[in-house]
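User: Could you check the structure of this?
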Amino acid sequence: MSGLKKHLWNDDKQSAISLTFDDGMKSHLDLAIPILENFGLAGTFYPIAKGNWETSLERFRPAFENGHEIGNHSIHHWCSCATSLDLDNIGLEYRTLDELESELQLADRRFRTVFPEIDQWSFCYPCYNTFVGRGKERRSYVPVVASHFFAARAGCEMSVSVNSPYHADLHCLNSWKCEHQSANDLIGLVERTNDLGGWSIFTFHGIGEGHLPIERCDLEKLCEYLDRARDRFWVAPLINVAKDLYASWTKK
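Assistant: Sure, the predicted structure tokens are below.
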């Protein structure tokens, strides 16, 4: 590997940045998308296909038509229940790989019903969890995701969340958890990414409200900074960067 040339993202950029938004929240439609578009940026949105799922997913069609990515975030949003004090919480510790595969297949059909134009999808692991079972029965469901999706975003320790252009796992991508972070904190991560020449994926939930929020002004300041520094790094939806990286690996 030491003989590899230094990777350039999108042919000429030092690093790559993707902005991702989980759970299909109202603030994504009301605030995040207008902020991104005001600075000419495109993000990745991961709504959930539950309840009145067709109507819920259709809300994101204008965003898709404006160049944003729509990704799959499951139906039931199963997470670990290891810290839950609810006796009836049946989380990933009690699920099987077969159950997860059925969940992903049904979710895939629902998303494709609303967005038939999309031929390659990315997936977002609910709560960043990538396993089922516990103890000796604990199993990764990353291979199941890899059989159905082009790429998938997970999480990571906050100290090591940059993705390598040489060794990244496209089906278990690291991401920065952005809740309660200031614009200066996020810009610092952008600059750290650029120094390393890697790919950082930022994970947002609520914008100015809701769970795991970031203040609206901090998202605006981050987007303004990204807009001004386009000559140094590539800002693009997750699926775009994943395709670019895969293409670089498979060039003859």
